[in-house]
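Sequence in, structure out. Go.
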Amino acid sequence: QVRLVESGGGLVQPGGSLTLSCAASGSGFRAYDMAWYRQTPGWERELVAIITRRGSTNYADYVKGRFTMSRDNAKSTVYLQLNSLKPEDTAVYYCRANGPIVEQDYWGKGTLVTVSS
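Output:
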């Protein structure tokens, strides 16, 4: 069992930056692929970025060049650096962990990012 806790959300002006963190408790973090998703009211949850257990990253087109995902296995934590934020980036951001077994699929409760002047 893995518990995920996101933090770092808040209110930021357009063009600003934030760093989100997702801390995982439980064992085996190194074996998990990790991802960030986001969701706005009335819309489906969408994938933002992925980092594999080997450290490879992939990003949604709408955040490429602006967001950077990283992981620190020693701290069992992943990060999402959000730069050049736009009002349309406003959403609840969720962390997800996928282990080598299909049942190992865990979500955090999310952290709210609001981009507004």
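Check: The two ends are 40 Å apart (CA to CA). Residues 32 and 102 are 11 Å apart (CA to CA).
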